[in-house]
Every structure is written in structure tokens, then in C-alpha cells.
Design a protein that fits this description.
The protein is an alpha/beta fold. It contains 13 helices and 13 strands. The chain has a single domain, classed as Rossmann fold, CATH 3.40.50. A seven-stranded parallel sheet has the order 3-2-1-4-5-6-11, sandwiched between helices. A two-stranded parallel sheet has the order 7-10. A two-stranded parallel sheet has the order 8-13.
């Protein structure tokens, strides 16, 4: 097993980086971190759709070139890619909500599959490109709910439109890598991260944002599947994994690395939705227990866990914050947001805490 690795500011300083999905939850944290390290970042994404967003809170202080483009718009996407001429690409733009994928299956597949293909097509003739990482999901695996943490060699699948679109994205990316980037000059890989939490997520139908909104509005928290387990981790754990992976892919031995890696909590640690809800409710000062949604809901898998040992062996990536630290950092961020504190400064402070 290789020694522990960290995000290397000297690698990123002055590096031309194309970051798609930079207005999203994970994308905003990645943008803040890359700008902190003085990378030359071009962001490409849809505008934030929520009333509140991390990106909206910090955008004015981010030194990046932002473009609001739908990745399904092939020609406009190609224009931005060619203009930015990146050395490194981190692709996180996606339709990332499971329940929305039931309502909007066509646009989910168009965005997650064809949008990724449009990007890969646009990367063909870039003169300075060294590595591209396509972020998918922990839900890409064929999940029979047998209680086993998934490894990268497990078969892909996905019952709901979101999961299957991400599995299809994995297959398409592997095809493009083998068909058009086989000479090894450009390394193309995929990353599969666990369920991320942290400050700045305001998306619909996500646990922490739903609890924060309930606390803000004085309502009872309602859960769909309280006994479901997920590989929870702080957003900075996954973003650090992506950046360390890209550093290695762009290095001399990048061609020897696995073409897909899992990034999840230590030892495949999983916690139920109900337990997370109880802890966060208490931290937000919500009295009483959560309620159960009784009407029929779109099906979701009950058990999900990732084996991230391959990332540890090949990259030296390991988680830094345990479950309690993750929840503390998350709650601190939302409470600071509610108190109208300087969110950009707080976000950078949490990144610095993670780095050290």
C-alpha cells in the first residue's frame, strides 16, 4: 500500500482546469479549493436552480471564468472547451437526483450520458490535455442488496433512471477512452463516490438540506426510508479523492492506474438515514422525532456501501474525518449560513482544516 497522499497545491497552481458542474454542491467546493490553490479555472454549468446555493454565496470571490452552458448543447460546449484549452478536466455536471430521474428520465439520460459524450468528443483535439476525470456515482453497481461493499470490478447496473444513466456513462467513458485516447497521452478515468454531505447543499429530496429547511420553517422532518444505509462522507473527502486521482493520472505513472476508483468512508462504514437525521435534528435544535412518509414513494435501494481500498492502495487516498467530525463541520456551516456569516471565509477555513 502506498503512503498517504494529499492534494498538492504546487501541482494545481497556474494549471488550466475545466470544471463542469461548478455551480453544484460538490462543484462549488471543488471550485473554491482550486481557486484557493490558484489554478486557472474555467467553470461550465447551468446556473444554480435553488433559492440558496453555495456557489451563489461565494461566486463573487472566486477567481474563475464562469460559463452557464447546458452540456447537452454540443456546439456551445465545444466552443468553451476549445477556448479554455484545459490541461485537466474534472467533469461533475449531471442530473444528480434520484427522485427527479423518475419524473424526468429522458433529460436525465440526455444529460448524464449524451452530455458526457459531448464533452469527451470536445476533448479530442486539445493540444495540452493530460487527464480527464468523469465523476459518476456509488449507485452505478448492480445492487442485489446482499450486504457487501462494492468493488470496482463488480458488474454495473442500476434500476432507477439516475443509477442506470450513470452506469451507462461509465460504459460510454470506457469506450471513448479505449477508442480515442488509447495512445496514453491523455488519461481518462471515472470516479465513484459515496453519499456526500457538507455545508452548501440545498437540493431537493436530500437529507441534510431537508432537515435544515424543516428547522428553518418550524416543521417536522419527514423521511422516506429511515432504515436505508448509505456510505456517508464529507464532500471534501470525495473532492480530495478526485484531485489526488487527477494529480496521479497526469503524472509519469498515470497510465498504470486503475481506470475507475471508489471513494467512500473508511472500512465501508455505513449509517442509516434515521440515525443521521436524529443527530442532525439535535444539532439544529429540532425537538421531537422525525415523521415517516406513508404514501407510496419511488423505490430506492435499502443497502449501499463502497469498498475504497483500491484508492488507498494505488493513490494513498484515505478519509480524514470520521462521522462525528463530518456532521459537526456540516452543521457548523449551515448555522453560519443562517447567521449571515462570511460563507466564503468559512468554506476556505473548512478546506484548510481538512488540509491540515
Amino acid at each position: 500500500m502506498v503512503k498517504s497522499a494529499n492534494v498538492d497545491p504546487s501541482f494545481w497552481k497556474g494549471r488550466r482546469v475545466l470544471l463542469t458542474g461548478h455551480t453544484g454542491f460538490k462543484g462549488s467546493w471543488a471550485a473554491a479549493w482550486l481557486c484557493k490553490m490558484e489554478a486557472e479555472v474555467t467553470g461550465l454549468s447551468l446556473p444554480p436552480e435553488c433559492e440558496f446555493s453555495l456557489y451563489g454565496s461565494i461566486a463573487e470571490k472566486l477567481a474563475l471564468n464562469s460559463h452557464f452552458v447546458d452540456i447537452r448543447e454540443r456546439e456551445r460546449l465545444k466552443e468553451v472547451v476549445q477556448e479554455s484549452n484545459p490541461e485537466i478536466v474534472l467533469h461533475m455536471a449531471a442530473q444528480a437526483l434520484v427522485r427527479r430521474s423518475y419524473r424526468e428520465p429522458v433529460s436525465t439520460f440526455e444529460t448524464n450520458v449524451m452530455g458526457t459524450i459531448n464533452l469527451l468528443q470536445a476533448l479530442f483535439e486539445l493540444p495540452d490535455l493530460r487527464a480527464a476525470l468523469i465523476v459518476t456515482s456509488d449507485k452505478v453497481y448492480l445492487n442485489n442488496e446482499d450486504g457487501r461493499a462494492f468493488k470496482e470490478t463488480d458488474p454495473l447496473g442500476g434500476d432507477d433512471p439516475y443509477s442506470s444513466s450513470k452506469a451507462a456513462c461509465e460504459i460510454a467513458t470506457a469506450s471513448f477512452a479505449k477508442s480515442f485516447f488509447a495512445d496514453g497521452n491523455v488519461r481518462v478515468a471515472t470516479a465513484r463516490a459515496g453519499n456526500v454531505i457538507g455545508g452548501g447543499d440545498f437540493s431537493e429530496d436530500r437529507l441534510i438540506p431537508d432537515i435544515w429547511r424543516a428547522a428553518r420553517e418550524g416543521k417536522t422532518v419527514t423521511l422516506r426510508y429511515p432504515h436505508a444505509t448509505r456510505p456517508w462522507q464529507h464532500v471534501l473527502e470525495s473532492v480530495s479523492g478526485y484531485l489526488i486521482y487527477l494529480q496521479a493520472l497526469a503524472g509519469e505513472k498515470g497510465a498504470e492506474l486503475p481506470k475507475s476508483l471508489n471513494f467512500g468512508p473508511a472500512d465501508g462504514e455505513v449509517v442509516t438515514v434515521g440515525r443521521i437525521a436524529q443527530q442532525v435534528q439535535k444539532a439544529f435544535g429540532i425537538e421531537g422525532d422525525w415523521g415517516l412518509i406513508n404514501n407510496e414513494q419511488p423505490p430506492e435501494k435499502s443497502f449501499l456501501a463502497l469498498d475504497a481500498s483500491l484508492a488507498a492502495r494505488t493513490l494513498g487516498w484515505r478519509t480524514k474525518w470520521n462521522g462525528d467530525e463530518t456532521l459537526t463541520k456540516t452543521v457548523d456551516w449551515y448555522q453560519a449560513f443562517s447567521d449571515n456569516q462570511d460563507i466564503h471565509a468559512l468554506t476556505l477555513t473548512q478546506i484548510e482544516d481538512y488540509e491540515t
